[in-house]
What we know:
Blueprint: E1 4-8, H1 16-27, E2 32-35, E3 40-45, H2 49-58, E4 66-68, H3 72-78, H4 84-93, E5 99-103, E6 118-122, H5 127-136, E7 140-144, H6 150-157, E8 163-167, E9 178-180, E10 187-190
Parallel strand pairs: 1-8, 2-8, 4-6, 5-9
Antiparallel strand pairs: 2-3, 3-7, 4-7, 5-6, 9-10
Helix pairs in contact: 1-5
Amino acid sequence: MAAEVLQLPYKTQPSAKIVERIQQAIGTGEIVVFPAETSYSIGGDAFQAKVVQRLQGLRREDKPLALYIGSMTELRLYTVPLLPRLRRALERLLPGPSVVVLRATPAAPRAAVGRHAEIEVHYHSSRSYQIFYEAAGRPLVGFSLSLWDPQEILHQFSEKSDVIVLTEEPLKREQMALIDFTQDPPVARQGELPKGLL
C-alpha cells in the first residue's frame, strides 16, 4: 500500500489535521519519512520495538540507528555530560545541520546505542524539522536517506513507509558534518570540523 503523503508549508503553519496525523503516525508506530536539514530522513518512535525492527530491515548497513531529538533537555537525558568547554562547543553546533556522536546514558533508546555506548544524535534547526518534531511529540530513531528530491523520495519509499512528510522549505544541500564528541578534542568523522569550534 502506498504511503500517505503530507505537505508542510514553508511560510505558514501546517493545518491542525496535518499535525494530528503526524502525531498519530508516530504514536501508533508507523514509519515516517520526514525533512531534516540537509536531506530527508526516515524514522519512527524510538521506543517501539516494531518500529526499530522495520527500520533495521530497511537499512543496508548493520549499525545502530540515529537518535532524533528536539531539545537540549532531551540531549542531556540521553547523553553523558561533557566537560564545560566541550559542552559550550556542542551548544554552538546544535541545533543545526551537524550531527554529533556522544556517550549514551542508560535512558537512551537501545536501538541507537553502539557497542562502545556511543550514540549518533540529530537535532536540526530547520523550520520543517522543528514543526515535524513538535508534532511527533517524542524522540525518534531512524537514519538519513541522503535524498532531497520529493519525486525520488516518493519513488523509493512510497511502498517502504507509511507516511511521507514533504516540505516546501529548501533543504541545505551540503555535506552533513558528523562530529565525534567521545574524543577530546572532538574529531570530524565526516565533513569538516567547524572553524573555531573550541
